[in-house]
Design goal:
single chain; four-stranded mixed beta sheet; EIF3F/CSN6-like_C; alpha+beta; two-stranded antiparallel ribbon
Amino acid sequence: MSPNQTVPFEEDEKDPSVWFLDHNYVESMREMFKKVNAREKLIGWYHSGPKLRASDLEINELFKRYTPNPLLVIIDVQPKEVGVPTDAYFAIEEIKDDGTTTTKTFVHTPSIIEAEEAEEIGVEHLLRDIRDVAVGTLSARITQQLQSLQGLHLRLRDIATYLQKVLNDELPVNHAILGNLQDIFNLLPNLTTPPASRPNGKNQIENSELARSMSVKTNDQLMTIYLSSLVRAITAFHDLIDNKNKNRQQAEEKEANKDDGEKKEGGKEKDEKKAGANGTVTTDKKEVEDGEKGKGKKKS
C-alpha cells in the first residue's frame, strides 16, 4: 500500500448496526488519485480496531463497489505486545455442514510492513532526534534491550511451534524455511568446542564450553573486523600516495611550462632588439648616402 486516506465515519455507540460512511468522499478521492497516478488501485480499507466489529461485514460489502475482494486491515494504535500491530482479513462465504445458508465471515491473512529504502533512512534519522527528556540514557537502553529480548522470545517461540507442527505432520515440510533456519543456526557459537585445560589436567572454571564457544565466535568476528580495518587503511594510504604523486607531477609540469614560456618571451625580446638595431643602422647609412649625393650635386 502506498497512499491511504482517512474517510469520514460515524457509529452509534449504543447500536453498532447504525453507522454512516461517506462513500461520496471515497469516490471523489479515488478520482483525484487516478489523476495523479492511474496505475494505483483501491484494494481495501482499514480501521483502528483493535478487534473486528459487528458492522465490518456491511462496510466491506460497501467497498465491493470499488474492488471485487476488498482487504480489511485492523491497526492497533496502542499495541501491548511486541510485533506487527496490524491484522489483515478477507471476507469469504462459510459453507456449513448442516446444509443451512452460507454466511460471510472474515479469514485472517498474514501481513508484513515494509518501506522503501529512502523511507527507512528518513524514519531512522527522525527517530534519532526523538528523545524522552524525562527518561535517562541507562533506562532507555535497558528498555530497548528488554523489548529486543521480548521480540526475540516471540520469534523463537514461533519457530518452535512451527517445527513441532512439522514434526507432528500437521504442516508440510518447507525446505526454504528450513534453509533459513539452518542459516540462523550456523551463526550461533559452536558449543561442541572442547574446553581448554590447565597443564595439570584440571579445567578452568572460566573456560567452560559455553564461555569458550562464545570467545571463539567473538574472536572470529573481531579478526574479520581487524582485517577489514587493515585493508581499509592500506587502501587509504595507497590513495593518499597516488594523490601526492599526481599533485607533484602537476606542479612539475606547471613549472616546466612556466620556464618554457619565459624562455620563449626572452627569445622574442632579443629578436625584437636585434631587429630594431639593424633598422637604425640601415637608416643611418641611407641618410649618409643621401647627404653625400646632395653634396655631390652642389659641387657640380
